[in-house]
Structure formats: structure tokens, C-alpha cells
Design a protein that fits this description.
single chain, 209 residues, 7-stranded mixed beta barrel, two-stranded antiparallel ribbon, KFase/CYL
């Protein structure tokens, strides 16, 4: 089993404009007899799931997402060697089978930049590439970047890939890590916090020997 999630830490990188992550001791073992940590973070902190309600008015919230949607066979598509700000188009995807599993993970290698300024210059998924994957059966898009759409330091209000995936009542998982050497076909489990909101931090695992 392999963990594909970034650990939640104080001060970790978040999408521009999102709440900062802060962890602090609320109770201490020696003083209070138990240790309890106070958490301050946004629903899209670290490795997390975007529910349709994230960008779609009236879209499903996380509490309406079943775990059966988030556990299953996944297709891992590797697109190495991309330049800063590159677009992963249909050509970059390579040959996509007619019927893909419900979960598709795009490995750009950008997870190694998480926590740095370069993470903001990640590659993005092209809209037509996203539509192709949805048309061929994808229900959950996983990426190792801050977003499948372009990100800038000031944030953005345009999310065309979110519109394609979440607009089709699908889901997006952002900030995956540990994708190196995963098989092209692998069983994945995505386990978000049970929040009734627009998204939730998640523990993501690949079931590998």
C-alpha cells in the first residue's frame, strides 16, 4: 500500500487565496492529561477532493459523494518533461482506451515542487483532453498539481476543466504525490473527511504490493 497524500502541516502551501493551515496545541498531555490539536485549514488544503459544489451552483456536496465513487481501478497517465505552464492536450495524453476506469490520474511529476513558488507554474490539463477523458468514462480526475486548471499567484476565477469534470457531476482530486513507479493500472482509494461542503482533505492510497 502506498500513501499518495501530502501530510497536513502548519504553513503548508495552499491555493492562492485559500485559508492558511495552522495546527496548534489545544490540550497538552502533561498539563491536561490528553493531547488535542486545534486545526485551522480550508476544505481544499493539502491532498483533497473537489465536490461539484466547489464550482457548480447547486452541485453535490461532499456528504453526497459515496465511497464507492472513490475506490476502484485507476488509469495512471504519465506526461513527464513538461515545461512550466504547459498544457496537457490530447496528444500528450497518448492513446486513451475507449473505456477508461472511473478514476484517471495524471502524473506530471510536479508533486516534487509542492511547497515552492514553482508549484504555481504547474502544467494544466487542456479542456479538450478533459472532455475526452470524461467521454471515455472518467468520473474522478486526479492530478499531482494545485489544480487541473492554470494557477496564478493572484488566484483565478476561470476553471474550465473544473467546469467539464465537476459540471458533469464528477470529482477532482488535487495535490497527489508519490505517483512515481505506480503501475499504469492500479487500485486506488480516496478517503475524504465527511464534510457537507464543497470539498475535503483526503487520505489517498494505492493498493500495491
Amino acid at each position: 500500500m502506498r500513501d499518495l497524500s501530502h501530510p497536513i502541516r502548519s504553513g503548508m502551501q495552499v491555493y492562492p487565496g485559500d485559508p492558511e493551515v495552522r495546527l496548534s496545541a489545544a490540550l497538552e498531555l502533561e498539563r491536561d492529561g490528553a493531547a488535542v490539536t486545534a486545526l485551522q485549514l480550508g476544505s481544499h488544503s493539502g491532498t483533497h477532493v473537489d465536490a461539484p459544489a466547489h464550482t457548480v451552483a447547486g452541485g453535490r456536496t461532499m456528504d453526497a459523494v459515496g465511497l464507492d465513487e472513490l475506490v476502484g481501478d485507476a488509469l495512471v497517465i504519465r506526461v513527464p518533461g513538461l515545461a512550466d505552464g504547459a498544457t496537457v492536450g490530447i496528444d500528450e495524453l497518448g492513446e486513451v482506451p475507449a473505456g477508461v476506469p472511473g478514476i484517471v490520474v495524471i502524473d506530471t511529476g510536479w508533486a516534487r515542487h509542492f511547497g515552492t513558488e514553482r508549484a504555481l507554474r504547474h502544467p494544466a490539463i487542456g479542456v479538450e483532453a478533459a472532455r475526452l477523458l470524461v467521454d471515455r468514462g472518467m468520473r474522478v480526475l486526479g492530478v499531482d498539481t494545485l489544480s487541473p486548471d492554470p494557477t496564478d499567484a493572484a488566484g483565478t476565477s476561470e476553471f474550465p476543466v473544473h467546469e467539464v469534470v465537476l459540471g458533469g457531476d464528477g470529482l477532482i482530486v488535487e495535490n497527489l504525490t508519490g505517483l512515481d513507479d505506480l503501475p499504469t493500472r492500479v487500485r486506488i482509494g480516496i478517503f475524504p473527511l465527511r464534510l457537507g461542503d464543497d470539498g475535503a482533505p483526503a487520505r489517498v492510497v494505492a493498493f500495491v504490493d
